[in-house]
Design a protein that fits this description.
CATH topology of the largest domain: Rossmann fold
Low-confidence stretches: 379-399
Bound molecules: adenosine-5'-triphosphate, magnesium ion
Number of strands: 13
Number of helices: 16
Number of domains: 2
Oligomer: single chain
CATH superfamily of the largest domain: P-loop containing nucleotide triphosphate hydrolases
Helix content: 40-55%
Strand content: 15-25%
Length: 399
């Protein structure tokens, strides 16, 4: 059975007759997600809804409409743009295609034309469940304060930047999720909406519950209201991960410290399990215990990546000793730079997206590169005490 094509109509509201015609004309049903005026916030709304098609009704100032078509074409490459106008002159049709529309519908809308246009779109749509699956990375520390939340937020941002693909964070600290602070977001939706609408949850609805920091970085927040965490169960988490990995290249999870069934369901789903620790006896012991538990849970060692956060070379612990105790190689280290870390948290901007010249940014780039096999685009040498020129332009630039 073919699934509905999701459409957002822009320009003006449809008449009842137009709406009925659109919904019933094509063999593939059309789900009209919203009807929006061509106002400044329309792109934000499109980014949130991520429809498969945008139907732009050309009216008013034509150039204004064509500018919007161009921006949708650039910013939402997966959304097919259909222009529609009462003016079917070659100039208008040509300008629609030049701006990035893939189809044109004349007005009043004709059923056979709607059917033909949307059947073409239906054939070109890559359905998320048919495309390849994104990678799930869980960052876990059994001891508090190792930097799980900081590392999760920055790793997701770093993966998105390196790959130029979408990444999202799932905050599973259901009682007190801090990710919005670390990512500088104010979520309206959360995993509680997944619970509320579980019966009708699909990839579109799931996408609309992400709070986007940019096109490339989103967050599925922990419940924003006290007491809403109790309803979240394993099946909600598992389904959210499955739907998000079908539409996002990297899903990075910040699970709670307690190894309850929700945490385990997230760890089970992870392709990479980052075991985070700091170089102190309690954290190393705790990591050792966690590794034993992972073995009992049947986790393959190749999935487990030991990462040392807040790393500075100290005479007490060198990495070799840590590797000996853990009987596992250290996969990567993240430098200790409290000033930079706390400053980024205080302004709500992941450090890796800032213009800071901290060594931490380089370390996240190396970690992301090791996880994905993608080489950083420019030089990879780490800044020494004096940062090299061009460093900011490599990692601090927003492109
Ligand atoms: N690489 C780093 N260098 C310096 N400081 C860091 C680094 N990573 C994290 N921190 C600091 O450590 C503190 C704790 O970080 P974070 O909140 O991410 O830990 P957590 O493991 O999520 O804690 P909790 O167990 O409470 O959830 C923060 O103040 C953060 O700034
Ligand atoms: Mg935390």
């Amino acid at each position: 059975m073919s699934k509905a094509i999701s459409v957002v109509v822009i320009g003006r509201s449809l008449s009842q007759q137009e709406r009925t015609r659109l919904r019933s004309a094509s063999q593939t049903p059309l789900a009209i997600l919203a009807e929006l005026p061509n106002a400044p916030q329309v792109l934000d709304e499109l980014n949130r809804l991520r429809p498969q098609a945008a139907l732009v009704l050309l009216n008013g100032e034509l150039n204004h409409s064509f500018q919007l078509v161009e921006r949708i074409h650039q910013e939402l490459p997966d959304t097919a743009v259909v222009c529609s106008s009462e003016d079917n002159s070659p100039e208008v049709i040509l300008q629609s295609f030049r701006s990035g529309a893939t189809e044109f519908l004349r007005q009043p809308l004709v059923e056979s034309e709607i059917a033909s246009v949307f059947s073409k779109i239906e054939q070109s749509v890559i359905r998320p469940e048919e495309s390849h699956l994104g990678r799930v990375v869980a960052v876990y520390a059994s001891k508090g304060g190792c930097g799980t939340t900081f590392v999760t937020a920055n790793l997701a941002a770093s993966l998105a930047r390196l790959s130029r693909k979408r990444a999202c964070v799932i905050d599973l600290n259901l009682q007190a999720g801090d990710q919005p602070l670390y990512l500088g977001l104010e979520p309206i939706y959360s995993i509680h909406d997944v619970v509320r609408n579980y019966d009708r949850l699909d990839d579109q609805l799931m996408a609309s519950y992400l709070t986007q920091r940019s096109k490339y970085l989103g967050l599925l927040a922990a419940p924003t209201e006290i007491g809403k965490d109790e309803d979240v169960r394993v099946e909600h988490v598992t389904r959210a991960i499955a739907l998000l990995r079908a539409q996002t290249e990297y899903v990075v999870i910040d699970p709670p410290r307690m190894l309850n069934e929700i945490t385990i369901s997230a760890l089970d789903a992870a392709d990479d399990l980052i075991l985070l620790l700091t170089l102190d006896i309690p954290a190393i012991r705790s990591a050792r215990r966690t590794l034993d538990i992972f073995t009992r849970l049947g986790y393959d060692r190749s999935r487990i990546k030991v990462v040392v956060n807040r790393y500075t070379k100290t005479p007490e612990f060198d990495l070799k000793q840590v590797e000996k105790v853990l009987e596992t190689q250290v996969f990567a280290t993240i430098a200790n730079d409290y000033q930079a870390a706390i400053a980024s948290i205080n302004v709500g901007e992941p450090l890796v997206l800032s213009k800071n010249q901290s060594r931490v940014i380089h370390d996240f780039s190396v970690l992301s590169s090791k996880l994905t096999g993608i080489k950083p685009q420019t030089e990879t040498s780490a800044p020494t005490s004096k940062p090299q020129r061009g460093w900011t332009s490599i990692f601090g630039s927003k492109r």
